[in-house]
Structures are given as structure tokens and as C-alpha cells.
Amino acid sequence: MKNTSDRVITDPVRLSADEARDLGRRALRSLGLAEEHAQTVVAHLVDAMLCGYPFAGLPRILAIADTPELQDPRTPVSISFETPVSAVVDGGNNPGYVAVHRGAQIAIEKARASGVAIVGVNNTWHSGRNAYYLEKIARAGFIGIHVASGGGMVVPSGATRPALGTNPLAIAVPSDPHPIIFDMGTGATMWGEVVLKAFLGEDFAEDVGLDAMGRPTRSAVEISKGGVLPFGGHKGYGLSFMIQALGLLAGSKRRHGEVFDFGYLFVVFSPDLLMPAGQFKQQLAELVTKIKAMQRQPGVDEIRIPSERSFRERELRTVEGVLLERRVYAALLAMGSA
């Protein structure tokens, strides 16, 4: 059976969204997460699966369980610096699913008050899909730009060892009936896909990373010991570097004094700062209509707009349920039963 990431699931378990949330919540609680935090994390993970990104879903709990930071003390998420239009959020060593979620909420609150907000989040890790946060921002009526730096996953062009994060960039604009969101990582593949394939003993279809000796490889296990290559050669590397720099503004160095670390930055503003929001939506609808009406190449059924597939997939999966590899399901079930 296939899901929308084109991975073949040879032995799937089908779960309803509620069953997936309960499975994930119990596994996360077994890791010591508070009930409120477990619910926040699992809502994000199951939504990723509903939108057609299984590697970013419940399998990420296995990565969370292996994260060294999970064993360190955690404190409540708090604001360490603030102005009327900006804030720096101390994630308290909580998972990014919790801390970055709060950062997005603060950005929305400030944008409602002032029309614009810049929010950085640090002292946290593993935040999931940028699109998840930006959808909330765009549905609140704002334009959102979000970048996230990390470390130790992506190999700079010409190097043999990883230093950068997969350093995604995402942009969202309000639209009807759904926001339009573009969300991309600057690595040749996402680290979550490496982790899942390594767990399952799978290889990639092409060389997307280097092994521990700096040699190109398709083996997910070997890539997990080495690093992922940037997408698009020097262009992807350049974009990744600049996102790493913006992560410094979010306070990435604060946690361990290292420039290669997690830093999350939101830039949020109202379309009304430049034109009436209704006018912007009208022009955006015109743009979408004209793009989709263009003559298509042979064999192409439809010209899609960013995030269009994800929203369709969510509607379908909400009814039909999500697919999870049986080995992952068994591992999570065992965690939740311990």
C-alpha cells in the first residue's frame, strides 16, 4: 500500500485519527510528558499523518524517546525578552512541539495588537512541521514567515561532516477556503525520513547524504551516522546558511553556547499594513485561478497550488484513517503499556 510520500507500507496498521491520538498520547506520557504537553505534541503528529507526511507523524515519538534532552530538567515555557511587537521565548527544554506552538500563539497575540510581530524561540528541540504553526497564523488572518535552524544533520557544500540543521523555511498567506502554505527543508531529505527509514532498514532511491566517512550513500542507517546533503547544491546550502544565521536572532546559541543549534523565528504581519486584507485575498484568488487555468503539459491532470494536496489529504484521511508501519505501531503500543 502507498501513502502520499510514495513510501510503500508493506505491513500497515490503519487507525482512526482518535485511535492514533490515543496511541501517541499514551506513548508520550510514558516518556514523562505532562498530559497537556502530550496532547499538544500528539495533535501535531497526527495532523502531519492526516496531511500525508507519515514520517513526521507518530514515528517521531521514537526519535523523541531517544533525544538526550528528554532526560534533562524541564521548566515552563516563558518569555525572556519582550517589546510590544517582539518576544524571545525560552522553551524551558520542552519539546519544540510545545515551545514553538506557544511562540506561534504569542506572535498571533502581538500581531492582533500591533499589526506585526517578530518572535524567536530557543532552548527547545524537535518542532515538527512548520506548516502546522503557520496554518494557525494564516487562519488568524496574518501572513507568516517561519524559519528554523538546527545542527548536526546537513553537510555544508564541500565538507565531509554535518554541521547545519535541515533548516526549513515556510511562508503562509490567508486564503479561502484554506491558507496557502509553502513549507520546505533545505536538506535533500528531511531528518525525520532518515530516522524512519533507518528504523525500518530502508534505503533512499538516490544519494541524499554522506556516511560517517564523508562518502555518498543511499543507506538511511549510514546517513544517520553521517549527514544529509543540501538540496540543490550550493543554492540549498546558501539558503540553509542564512537560516542558521537567522536562528541566532532567535537565541539558538543560548542553550549550549553553540551556533549550530535550534532557533525558531516567526515574522507575522497583517496584510492591512500594505493593502486591505479583502483586496489581497481577491488578488490572491485571481493568481490561483490564472495559474490553475494554464495549459498543462501532456499527462498532467492538474496544476496544484502549494498546500492544496495536504488539505485534500487531510479531508480524505479524516474519514479513511491513517496508516502506520506495524513495527512502529508495536513499539508505540509497548511504550504506552509499560
Feature tags:
13 strands; single chain; disordered N terminus; 7-stranded mixed β-sheet; 3-stranded antiparallel β-sheet; 41% helix; Hypothetical Oxidoreductase Yiak, Chain: A, domain 1; Ribosomal Protein S8, Chain: A, domain 1; 338 residues
CATH hierarchy class name of the largest domain: Alpha Beta
- The overall pLDDT average reads 94
Q: Main β-sheet, in a few words?
A: 7 strands, mixed
State the secondary-structure class.
Answer: alpha+beta
CATH architectural group of the largest domain = 2-Layer Sandwich
Q: Write down the domain tally.
A: 3
Task: Round the Cα radius of gyration to an integer and report it.
Answer: 20 Å
Name the beta content range.
15-25%
What is the straight-line distance between the termini?
Answer: 31 Å
Shape: globular
Q: What's the name of the CATH homologous superfamily of the largest domain?
A: Malate/L-lactate/L-sulpholactate dehydrogenase, NADPH binding domain
Q: How would you describe this protein?
A:
- The radius of gyration is 20 Å and the shape is globular.
- Helix 1 crosses helix 2, helix 1 crosses helix 11 and helix 4 runs parallel beside helix 5.
- The strands form 3 sheets. The chain has a 7-stranded mixed sheet with strand order 2-3-4-12-5-7-8, with helices on both faces. The chain has a 3-stranded antiparallel sheet with strand order 10-9-11. The protein has a two-stranded antiparallel sheet with strand order 1-13.
- It contains 11 helices and 13 strands.
- The longest helix has 19 residues.
- The N terminus is likely disordered.
- The protein has 3 domains: 84 residues, Hypothetical Oxidoreductase Yiak, Chain: A, domain 1 (Orthogonal Bundle); 192 residues, Malate/L-lactate/L-sulpholactate dehydrogenase, NADPH binding domain (Ribosomal Protein S8, Chain: A, domain 1, 2-Layer Sandwich); 36 residues.
- It is of the alpha+beta class and 338 residues long.
